[in-house]
Design brief:
The protein has one domain: MoaB/Mog-like domain (Molybdenum Cofactor Biosythetic Enzyme, Chain A), CATH 3.40.980.10. It has about 160 residues and is α/β, with parallel strands linked by helices. The chain starts with a strand and ends with a helix. Helix content is about 45%, strand content about 20%. The protein is globular. It contains 6 helices and 6 strands, in the order βααβαβαβαββα.
Length: about 160
């Protein structure tokens, strides 16, 4: 099976070019090292409808196995990535964010403040990761061993 992925960085500042996106490229490196083909990377602002539309595009038009979002999962008023994800998924996968938050404890106590969710839209697994490089990397590494077997079951 070909394991395809898309990375969606959600950040007002990165989308305006005020700050460089370091998290998206870090996630690409991790996935590629594990044999995933990252077919799309994109940066969008913290806007509910834009995030939602991009998630639909990745799952429907690109038909990727996996979409990782990075950012927009905190307590800030503009952090709406989980809500946009919830609006497009058909089924939740609660064990994934549970494992990520547990692993984030080793990075800092702030990791437990991530509101990220995970779920399924058709044949695509969508996972919200925190925006910081350290938290995103530790979260992804915590769940990485389960992703290919999960996608295998999803895509049967």
């Amino acid at each position: 099976m070909k394991y395809t992925a898309a990375i969606l960085t959600v950040s007002d500042r990165c989308s305006r070019g005020v700050r460089e996106d370091n998290t998206g490229p870090a996630l690409v490196r991790i996935l590629e090292d594990e044999g995933w083909e990252v077919v799309s990377t994109k940066i969008v602002p913290d806007e509910f409808e834009i995030i939602k539309a991009e998630l639909v595009h990745c799952s429907y038009d690109l038909d990727v196995c996996l979409v990782l979002t990075a950012g927009g999962t905190g307590f800030g008023r503009r952090d709406v990535t989980p809500e946009a994800t919830e609006a497009v998924i058909n089924r939740v996968a609660p064990g994934i964010p549970e494992a990520m938050r547990y692993a984030a404890r080793s990075v800092s106590s702030g990791g437990m403040l991530s509101r990220g969710i995970a779920g399924l839209r058709g044949g695509t697994l969508i996972i919200n990761l925190p925006g910081s490089v350290d938290h995103a990397e530790s979260s992804l590494k915590a769940i990485l061993p389960a992703l290919k077997p999960g996608v295998d079951r999803l895509r049967r």
